[in-house]
Write a structure and sequence with these properties.
The structure is a single chain. By secondary structure, the protein is mostly helical. It has one domain. 47% of the residues lie in helices and 0% in strands. The longest helix has 16 residues.
């Protein structure tokens, strides 16, 4: 697709309430959680929505 102006792109992408971005936001933050397996959901912190990796990469050093 070709969008002749930035306003056309912004209209297509939208924001949290309308447009393509609203669909992406809704799927990631409202619907995906229901489809995750229980073992993965348990490793995610509900308050922070941060995935806790049990095997961090070799270059990661946890802050103590």
């Amino acid at each position: 697709m070709h969008y002749p102006s930035l306003a056309d792109v912004e209209q297509y992408i939208g924001n949290i309430n309308s447009g393509a971005y609203s669909l992406i936001h809704r799927m990631n933050y409202h619907m995906l959680w229901d489809y995750l397996p229980a073992d993965i959901r348990d490793k995610m912190g509900w308050e922070t929505t941060e995935l806790i990796n049990p095997n961090p990469p070799y270059y990661y050093k946890p802050k103590e």
